[in-house]
Amino acid sequence: MHRFIFHRLLHSVVIVFAVSVIVFLFVQASGDPAALLVPEQATPEDVAQYRKALGLDRPLYIQYLQFMGNFWFSDTVKSFRFHQPLLPLVMQHLQFTLILAGLTIAVSALLAVPLGIVAALRRGSVWDVGIRVVAVLGQSMPSFWVAMLLMLTLAVHLRLFPVSGLGIKNSVLPTITLAFFQMAVLLRLVRSEMLEVMSQDYIRTARAKGVPERWVTVHHALKNAAIPAITVMGLQFGALVQGAIVVEPIFAWPGLGWLLVESIAARDFPVVVAGAIVAAIFVTAVNLFVDLLYGWLDPRIRVH
């Protein structure tokens, strides 16, 4: 188990390092920050002087090391637009993304698990067909289109929820948007796992012994079908940080996705790099936790 944990930790560190380097290089290749920050009437000498003050005249690897050191251990590097230290700024917006991700996982699980069980127990029925159609629609409809549709119907025409902002009612529309796809993925998984488990010999044995059907479903079938579902839910939680980049700007939800989009539009390069690094760390940490949990639940995973 210790070797398994070490390999997963090393793999996670390599991924975060690679993401930070790639994002840093892409940002450096997109333009000269010094030329964007100086006034329009600035001379080339002014740009060169400003570039030197920012340390942009140094080799790239020196700039990378300096940026990472200042990002984690100092407040000297600040956002061009918000004029705040990078780490507190990114963490301030990350908390709103985590709130949205938690609500999305809760809603998708509360809907997908019972619907998946019903579809599996009534295989081939009208209920099963209808639930599968909903799952297919959820996986095939783009998030931005679902967001615009919900905004148009529930916010503009029916005026049930606000279009944008921060608050309990403001979180409903972005949560539904993100949960629609996540629910579809989890629903299909629960249905397929329940069908597989319900065909096992020990389920038939329990029924032959006269065990009530509800007990068989909840305590035998669902218990064994829950492990893959828990794994997918953990992976979805990390993936929601990426999905928030699309949904949050539409509803002006001030999470990490909104911050990244706004910073890219304003060419606030330090925030772009810092936000991408924090997002990569979070997603990798969630995936690491799921890997370790799955390895603990299923010892066969550790061998591979």
Report what the structure shows.
The chain is elongated and about 85 Å long. It is mostly helical and 304 residues long. The chain folds into two domains: 2-73, no CATH class; 86-303, MetI-like (MetI-like fold), CATH 1.10.3720.10. The protein has 13 helices and no strands. The longest helix has 39 residues, at 213-251. The chain has helices at residues 2-29, 33-37, 44-54, 60-73, 86-121, 126-140, 143-157, 172-198, 201-208, 213-251, 256-265, 269-297, 300-303. The chain is 79% helix and 0% strand.
Question: Helix and strand layout, with pairings?
Answer:
Layout: H1 2-29, H2 33-37, H3 44-54, H4 60-73, H5 86-121, H6 126-140, H7 143-157, H8 172-198, H9 201-208, H10 213-251, H11 256-265, H12 269-297, H13 300-303
Helix pairs in contact: 1-12, 5-6, 5-8, 5-10, 5-11, 5-12, 6-8, 7-8, 7-10, 8-10, 10-11, 10-12, 11-12
| Mean pLDDT figure | 83
**Strand tally, please?**
0
Round the Cα radius of gyration to an integer and report it. 24 Å
> Ranges with pLDDT <50 over ≥5 residues?
none
What would you call the shape?
elongated
- How many structural domains are formed by the residues? 2
Proportion of β residues? Answer: under 5%
Report the structural category. mainly alpha
- How do the SSEs run, as a string of H and E? HHHHHHHHHHHHH
- Using the coordinates above, name the CATH class of the largest domain: Mainly Alpha
CATH structural fold name of the largest domain: MetI-like fold
Span between N and C termini? 11 Å
- State the helical fraction: over 70%
Under the CATH scheme, the architecture of the largest domain is Orthogonal Bundle
CATH superfamily of the largest domain: MetI-like
**Can you count the helices?**
13
Question: How many strands, what sense, and barrel or not for the largest sheet?
Answer: none
